[in-house]
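User: Please fill in residues for this 253-position structure.
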């Protein structure tokens, strides 16, 4: 068992009788900003009320996406609609990655506070989907060398950023985002950034861009797949739990 998932495993100590699989060997090191092949469309800051539309679009297009989620950002991850959304996305083969508990500026936190940001979300996802993500995207792309090393070594996380920004979080219009993403040329690999918290990113940009990228020849796949499948998408795989009094976003860190 790697030391990497120590935080989560200590949280799981009350569940000794349950078998679970620890599947990570070692993460990809450094912070990766692009795929090895094809294109990994990603949606950050969820789960949001638009996530179901993202999933329907990608399922209908026979494509996969990656969702980097928070514990408490726009809503609480334990809300029942978020729980159902996440379970459905995992069942459909999309990838869920970590984006910290509270959408934190990691570089301004102490190592202990960084650990809390990682572990509190890991605990939530372990309970909700029975899986602990092996991939992480730092909010704002902010994670300096020490931060990346800590995430790699202590938490066993593969750290990814992006190579193309749709611009949705900094005020780009939907048509500007569509132009940015439609300018990508197959077979150059890409790892574009977008956010599922903006209605236009989900209802206007993605529906315009997904078919045109596919028409060029891109396979739209998860980040784990576009990085060659060398590291599995989840550090630990068990089974989802049932809601209890610990499923709360109170006492937010
Ligand atoms: Zn974010």
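Assistant: Residues filled in for all 253 positions:
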């Amino acid at each position: 068992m790697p030391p990497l998932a120590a935080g989560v495993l200590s949280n799981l100590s009350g569940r000794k009788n349950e078998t679970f699989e620890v599947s990570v060997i070692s993460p990809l090191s450094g912070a990766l900003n692009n795929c090895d092949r094809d294109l990994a469309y990603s949606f950050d800051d969820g789960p949001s009320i638009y996530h179901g539309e993202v999933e329907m679009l990608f399922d209908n297009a026979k494509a996969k996406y990656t969702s980097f989620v928070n514990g408490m950002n726009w809503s609480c991850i334990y809300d029942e609609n978020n729980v159902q959304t996440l379970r459905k996305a995992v069942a459909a083969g999309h990838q869920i990655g970590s984006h910290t508990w509270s959408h934190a500026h990691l570089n301004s936190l102490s190592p202990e506070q960084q650990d809390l940001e990682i572990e509190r979300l890991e605990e939530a996802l372990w309970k909700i989907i029975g899986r602990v993500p092996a991939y992480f995207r730092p909010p704002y792309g902010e994670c300096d060398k020490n931060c990346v090393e800590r995430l790699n070594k202590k938490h066993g996380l593969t750290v990814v950023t992006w190579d193309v920004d749709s611009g949705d979080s900094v005020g780009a219009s939907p048509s500007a985002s569509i132009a940015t993403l439609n300018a990508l040329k197959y077979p150059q690999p890409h790892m574009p950034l977008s956010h599922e918290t903006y209605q236009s990113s989900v209802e206007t940009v993605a529906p315009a861009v997904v078919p045109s990228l596919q028409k060029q020849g891109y396979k739209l796949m998860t980040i784990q797949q576009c990085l060659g499948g060398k590291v599995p998408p989840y550090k630990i795989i068990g089974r989802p739990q049932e809601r209890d009094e610990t499923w709360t976003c109170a006492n937010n860190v």
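For context: The two ends are 28 Å apart (CA to CA).
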